[in-house]
């Protein structure tokens, strides 16, 4: 046995897949996906919004913020396709920023589709709003400024919204995701989908305890780890964790 036995034992629970690295093994491969399949198909308005967002003062000041805040083009393409596949009509978004995922959603919904969009910051939303208007989809959006949790509580209390949402995209304060989930599970319809964004949290979900992580990454990591465990244990949903963007976990309500 010796060293071999030990390493076999360590390997016992490890996956045997050989194809999993194909998506993320190099920057060049990611660039290839963007250039071959994403950018050529990206609607003009989404491209324009991406460019306006890249010039946002926060981004100019601290370049890496762009990657943290805005949804990537490939994830925008994925959301747009997913919404069409499930024929979504009534949706919610928590965490709008300048509106890239919101625009991807608005472009996917039918003309009488609705998005209830929440963010504590209206200024950033207004940066993207002229582009959303120009794309002819602003009428689908009901933007609410303020923290999402009290709004969700109000909706639950009203009782008119239970089981009404086809799709809900959560991309805001990670330390509240579990609190959102407690409410959203009642608001999404049975068969509907909740997408929790950034569930791989910069890859930090597998970082060793002494890894040098940025302060905010370290702070939110524990919440993301808790969320991932809670979603996997929740019998009311089926889940699918996708390595798109920073990781998105799709939860389909089944009861
Ligand atoms: N989905 C956006 C996109 O595609 O560009 C990115 C959203 S950004 C990662 C997170 C957003 O969540 C920020 O705009 C922030 O203002 C918002 N936010 C933070 N805490 C919030 C809260 N308690 N309620 C609602 N929005 C919140
Ligand atoms: Ca995100």
TrEMBL record:
Q: Cross-referenced InterPro entries, in alphabetical order?
A: Cation-dep_OMT (IPR050362), SAM-dependent_MTases_sf (IPR029063), SAM_O-MeTrfase (IPR002935)
Q: Which UniProt keywords apply?
A: Lignin biosynthesis, Metal-binding, Methyltransferase, S-adenosyl-L-methionine, Transferase
Among SUPFAM superfamilies, the record links this protein to:
S-adenosyl-L-methionine-dependent methyltransferases
Q: What class of enzyme is it?
A: transferase
A GO BP entry is:
methylation
Q: Which Pfam families match?
A: Methyltransf_3 (PF01596)
User: Family, per the entry?
Assistant: Belongs to the class I-like SAM-binding methyltransferase superfamily. Cation-dependent O-methyltransferase family.
Can you name this protein?
caffeoyl-CoA O-methyltransferase
């Amino acid at each position: 046995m010796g060293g071999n036995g030990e390493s076999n034992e360590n390997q016992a629970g490890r996956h045997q897949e050989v194809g999993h690295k194909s998506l993320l093994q190099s920057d060049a491969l990611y660039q290839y996906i963007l250039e071959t399949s994403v950018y050529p198909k990206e609607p003009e308005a989404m491209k324009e919004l991406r460019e306006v967002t890249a010039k946002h003062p926060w981004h100019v000041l601290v370049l890496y913020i762009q990657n943290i805040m805005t949804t990537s083009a490939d994830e925008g393409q994925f959301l747009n396709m997913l919404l069409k596949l499930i024929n979504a009509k009534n949706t919610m978004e928590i965490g709008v920023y300048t509106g890239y995922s919101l625009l991807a959603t608005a472009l996917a919904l039918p003309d009488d589709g609705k998005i209830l969009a929440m963010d504590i910051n209206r200024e950033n939303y207004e940066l993207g709003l002229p582009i959303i208007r120009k794309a002819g989809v602003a009428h689908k959006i009901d933007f609410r400024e303020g923290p999402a949790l009290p709004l969700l509580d109000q909706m639950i209390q009203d009782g008119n919204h239970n089981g009404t949402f086809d799709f809900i995209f959560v991309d805001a304060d990670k330390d509240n995701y579990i609190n959102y989930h407690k409410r959203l599970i009642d608001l999404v319809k049975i068969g509907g989908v909740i997408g929790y964004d950034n569930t791989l949290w910069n890859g930090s979900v597998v970082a060793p305890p002494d890894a040098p992580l940025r302060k905010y990454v370290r702070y939110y990591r524990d919440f993301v780890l808790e969320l991932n465990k809670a979603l996997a244990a929740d019998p009311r949903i089926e889940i699918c964790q996708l390595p798109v963007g920073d990781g998105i976990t799709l939860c389909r309500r089944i009861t």
